[in-house]
Amino acid sequence: MRKIINSLFALIVVSVGFTSCEDLSDRVIINSDVATTTELIIQESTPLVLLEANQDVIALNTNWAEPDFGFDAAPTYKILVDLATGDFSGAVTLDVGDNLEKTFTTLELNSIALGLGAEADTASDLSLKLQGFVGGQLLIDSSPKTVNVTPYSSILDLSTNWGVVGSAANDWGATPDLPFYTTSTAGVLVAYVTLIDGEIKFREDNLWTNNYGDTGGDGTLDAGGDNIAVTAGSYKILMNLNDLTYTIESFSIGIVGSAYNDWGNSPDFALTYDSYSDQFRGIVKLLDGEMKFRMNNDWGTNYGDTGVDNVLDLNGDNIVTTAGRYIVTVNLNDLSYSLEPIDHIWGLVGSAYNDWGNTPDAIFTRDWSQPNDDIWVLNNVTLLDGEYKFRSNEAWAVNYGDTGADGTLDDGGDNIVAVAGTYSFVLDFSDPANATYTIN
């Protein structure tokens, strides 16, 4: 405490020195008890059971009395949240500015809890504490308060043991089969796939023990039956295990417009299926302009938004966009959609991939199985012998290498050496001060 008081006294002397009207003989009285008398107040009684249906509702209210520093101060505050078993070294830190309160919506508190490692549908104790700063100096570090929270999982598990295999899908098993997912109808599975010219079958557990083809090409599944011939394209495949039938139809949903491809002068930006939310998502750079969503790169089925209510309308009005980078989400179950601005789209660049940017970077996507935006993945990218780095928005302002080759991302660090092959990458920014990457 003596060190803090001395530091604060020095700060005050300096500030007085710059104020000509101050009498230097005036004494400044400092409240040495300010840290111990400033308390974080939790208004709710716990436990708190969070519900996804209430995600926009305030779940937790905190506040604190204005501290008496013993002089005219302009403090700013932070709230730190950690698991009760932690020591705040890995806490979530929230800037509150000069406010004397902080509220948490259900969604915010749920995301914080899951991000800290709390398990969904399980009660966990969180610790919260208040920090106060004057002139950048930490003067208040309150005692922690404990809140018992049961978070919910918004992550769906629609996985099955069935997949699409074949020369048109994965070279007959050279890579994992393309997955089928459950639907709202028991026994009916769906796969959203991009195929090349070739043949396919459906099999269970990536094995040939239980597989189906179509002998006779009549849409009926036959155990061990003939391969199914397909042409290159994007498809929705429905497999009905109740009556052993299947359908294959062309299927894609994408963004078209002056905001992306000059209304179709180049292919639409294709959204991909996110089985963890049963929605279609994409990460895209948009221009100032307008856009719509359409099926199969064709105007036969297109959606806009008449009324600007974030609900898609068949043949509706164009959607006005502001230039930026977005996570775009479309829910075809209720026709809702969202455009969420983001700061970074991560990519891989280097002599091992695109001659240091002579062609577009290999672009990462979010790991949708995670409750936050800290994990990014890039699957099955082919590299040459050479070097590479990771960078944001296909520019060099923010780039990471690995100085020391220890798996830690270093801002502006050394190039990473690559040996020719096909790899998958994960970028983990969950601890911004110690970001990491892994290669598989």
What would your notes on this structure say?
It contains 3 helices and 38 strands. The strands form 7 sheets. Strands 10, 11, 12, 13, 14, 15, 16, 17 and 18 form a 9-stranded antiparallel β-sheet that branches. The longest helix has 16 residues, at 2-17. Residues 1-29 have low confidence and may be disordered. Helices cover 7% and strands 43% of the residues. The two termini are 50 Å apart. Strand 7 and strand 8 form a beta hairpin. It is mainly beta and 440 residues long. The protein folds into 4 domains: 30-150, Immunoglobulin-like (Sandwich); 159-250, Immunoglobulin-like (Sandwich), CATH 2.60.40; 253-342, Immunoglobulin-like (Sandwich), CATH 2.60.40.3620; 346-439, Immunoglobulin-like (Sandwich), CATH 2.60.40.
Features:
single chain; Immunoglobulin-like; globular; 440 residues; mainly beta; six-stranded mixed beta sheet; 3 helices; disordered N terminus; nine-stranded antiparallel beta sheet
Compact overview of the structure:
It is built from three helices and 38 strands. The protein is mainly β.
Topology (SSEs and partners):
Blueprint lengths: L1 H16 L16 H4 L3 E2 L5 E2 L8 E6 L12 E8 L8 E6 L3 E5 H10 L8 E11 L2 E5 L3 E6 L8 E7 L12 E5 L5 E8 L2 E7 L6 E3 L8 E2 L4 E3 L2 E8 L4 E6 L2 E4 L12 E2 L1 E3 L4 E8 L2 E7 L6 E3 L8 E2 L4 E3 L2 E8 L4 E7 L3 E4 L12 E2 L1 E2 L8 E9 L2 E7 L6 E3 L8 E2 L4 E3 L2 E8 L7 E4 L1
Parallel strand pairs: 2-9
Antiparallel strand pairs: 1-3, 3-6, 4-5, 4-7, 7-8, 7-9, 10-11, 10-13, 11-12, 12-17, 13-14, 13-16, 14-15, 17-18, 19-20, 19-23, 21-22, 22-27, 23-24, 23-26, 24-25, 27-28, 29-30, 29-33, 31-32, 32-37, 33-34, 33-36, 34-35, 37-38
